[in-house]
Amino acid sequence: MFEESNLKKLKMQRGLLYVFFILLTLLSIVPFWITIVNSTRSAPQIQQGLSLVPSRFGWSNWQHLRGRGFNVFEGYRNSFIIAAGSTTLSLYFSSLTAYAMIVYDFKFKKIIWGVILLLIMIPSQVSIIGFYRFMANMNLLNSYIPLILPSIASAPTVFFMKQYLETVYHPALVDSARIDGATEIKIFHTVILPLMRPALATMAIFGFIGSWNNFLLPLILINERSMYTLPMLIQLLTTDGYRTEYGAMYMGITLSVVPLILLYIFLSRYIIGGVTAGSVKQ
Questions:
Q1: Number of domains in the chain
Q2: Cα–Cα distance for residue pair 183/202, rounded to 1 Å
Q3: Cβ neighbours, 10 Å, residue 190
Q4: Residues 123 and 22 in one domain
Q5: Cβ neighbourhood burial of 156 (10 Å; 0-12, 13-18, 19+)
Q6: Are 182 and 190 in contact (CB under 8 A)?
Q7: Structure pTM?
Q8: 3-state class of 180 per DSSP?
Q9: How many Å from the N-terminal Cα to the C-terminal Cα in the chain?
Q10: What is the number of alpha carbons within 13 Å of residue 213 lying toward its C-beta?
């Protein structure tokens, strides 16, 4: 009887957990579904209230989007160049910095780490005016370089990589590779980077989304229409002083969200697969 009562309690607890996770899943999915539904509705329908059922104005919203000069493929290209370039640089050099902070002992190591923590606490908006003037003096306006190259020094990514590496790193890994004659850079590429795959996937999602949705900095640095990113193109749809086409706006937002969802679906398996992965058996 005692075992049966415990089994019933476990089943009840498991059922409550399933209900809780289903509710969280619905709360996560509903905003995306509403955005997709609104992209198929007209502006008057959207103003009338919320709906979870798609309408029949999707094609007209797409035509209005194209009529306003919204070149979605050009926007995809520009946003992808910036997001992919900045994310790749950020992941590689942040991992390299975190590896150096964990493995090596060198002078001023604690001071450098303190500076990294200080940079995390400084809002990026504080330095935006100085950054703009610096880029203008270097003739780098209307260029993607200021949007990609500074990602080499990403303090939050370095912090996350170091904290993750502290939990999975074991000196025996590097020592055995050195005994086999591997160079330090080869050790980093063949031993450390595969070990950090879950952290890389996590920060790739956050970094790519942050760069993809970045609106303020590209708006300040880029003036040429052909170089506009997707958020900048969507912003152009709100400049009509007589009527705002909310359906077209939601269509543009939906198109900009699709690559982010695909990225998460692709990289989430590396996060899940690396949670229970171990590198050294004791």
A1: 2
A2: 28
A3: 12
A4: no
A5: middle
A6: yes
A7: 0.82
A8: coil
A9: 40
A10: 12
